[in-house]
């Protein structure tokens, strides 16, 4: 039907060009220590996790803020209740953010299409995604040079790096007085290859101004 | 009744490749010939047709459709759209094929009908099918236009030689006798379904972008470098358009910030649309390529409103909103509106957001008319989940909206930390004694 050589040529054409060819996407400075290369390497998947106290989505948004500020496109799949105000506060450029509202069976289809043209895809898969879908998406992201930020619990995704919010303390709220002002978290990073030794980082996520600051 | 979109189909016989495309032997020294060249001319044609309508759907090389309702309203009539389309196709294609420009009829066949299948037949006879007349239009066509030789053969031997006769069969009998694919053909014949499988060349959108990419490189125009739409923007636009085509226009949304008190008032999701226009503060803004900023299409009251692009909520530059929730903002916002508190309880998402707050004696906590809690919140349950101990709570924020009108609403917001060992932060809202999770600080 098609000449495979020609198809490959076409595939090369639609691949990221020039400026986006750089393999490392910058992240905000408080997060750089958590990643082995000091940034998000294209084609990798990073799982953002948290316990019952939450914080995984904020962490993923904070990770996407660096590339977004540098001009990358971001998309969010499987988080229909995204608080865009919080995303903007953490530094994500809303002009280059798309929120995908697909029915949950379509999450893998949507993610697979997105990695073709979007640099950073934040995806919250269903609790137990099919391993075959995970493998396909990981391979596709690697091929297209997109970064997958997976918001999910342990075991949901065999990611290259894992960043987990281990402790979380809200400040500013007392019994019937005050308001939520800032959250101090401990993020523990672990991963394969050059990142076997876990790294800890204390962060304000978010700080009182809504952004992310090293504690 | 019929919900198929009314489509204008443009077929360019000179560009139409036989499908599936046979592998062409590359002519020495002439790599431009054949499929690649046809594809590039077609890509430029589609690009030019975007002037009429941005939702052009390339079906296969040389064939594309566009919804005609909107353009017809804009140009005044369907005839005006057809005339404009012929002009555009002639301008792009005639010079390339060295055909006389004065005979545009040979360049393109146009047809208008509901659904891709009927539109394709309309193009064959160059017909404009009247609105709602698609079923009647399909009826006299022979059954072999369905492209299922076995089915057509059998139907003809049964004496059902036209689509109209086939359509008159009861649907259940057709399904029982001819199976799922026969049933699909039957639905197409009855005008309930728009297209048959296999009529589209897969991956057409991406092939066109690839073709245009080469085209742009040849004309020494590097978008992005000279301040136009960058390659990254185009790639993103391509995948978003693709997603919208597959999952519906609502599937891809852009967040837009606006004024308001609660988190769900302050952020709205609008369907994503291609570069050129963005919706902001409820009005259309046109993007100016020169500086990448947007300008309001018509004056917006309160021009000190932040302009998109620099619209990070900066304190001091926005008009004050008494009762506005202070930062930091919650990362998850349950989208149902405050007003739909009771209606929302009927949907699964709404039920998951229903909360209960009780004091140490198990009595529900409420907010008094003076904005005070009737008791100390001790336990919280969200969406019917087990009770969680409350670790901290704020003073209630009274919300009083439209107190001057009959649509007045009184509610109160409360920030609550709750959880068994580690606390999760919630933003709750209570209205008429009912609690609901409005946002989660994830």
In short:
The complex is a heterodimer of chains A (215) and B (442). Chain A is an alpha/beta fold and 215 residues long.
Describe the protein.
The complex is a heterodimer of chains A (215) and B (442). Chain A is of the alpha/beta class. Chain A has a domain at 22-166: P-loop containing nucleotide triphosphate hydrolases (Rossmann fold), CATH 3.40.50. Chain A is built from six helices and eleven strands. In chain A, the strands form two sheets. Chain A has a nine-stranded mixed sheet with strand order 5-4-6-7-3-8-9-10-11, with helices on both faces. In chain A, strands 1-2 form a two-stranded antiparallel ribbon. Chain B folds into three domains: 6-20 and 32-215; 253-296, no CATH class; 332-440, no CATH class. Chain B has helices at 35-49, 69-75, 78-97, 116-124, 134-138, 149-157, 163-167, 171-189, 204-218, 231-247, 263-266, 341-344, 348-352; strands at residues 6-11, 57-60, 63-67, 109-114, 252-257, 267-271, 277-280, 283-287, 294-296, 332-333, 354-358, 379-382, 388-393, 397-401, 409-418, 424-431, 434-440. Chains A and B meet through helix 1, helix 3, helix 4, strand 5 and helix 5 of A and helix 9, helix 10, strand 5 and strand 10 of B.
Quote the beta fraction of chain A: 25-35%
Order of helices and strands of chain B: EHEEHHEHHHHHHHEHEEEEEHHEEEEEEE
Structural class of chain B: alpha+beta
Greatest interface by residues involved: A-B, 74 and 71 residues
Name of the level-1 CATH class of the domain at 22-166 in chain A: Alpha Beta
Amino-to-carboxy terminus distance of chain A? 59 Å
Q: Assign an overall shape of chain A.
A: globular
List unreliable stretches of 5+ residues of chain B: 19-32, 216-228, 276-317
Can you tell me the number of structural domains of chain B?
3
* Number of separate strands of chain B: 17
Strand content of chain B: 15-25%
Number of strands of chain A: 11
Largest sheet data of chain A: 9 strands, mixed
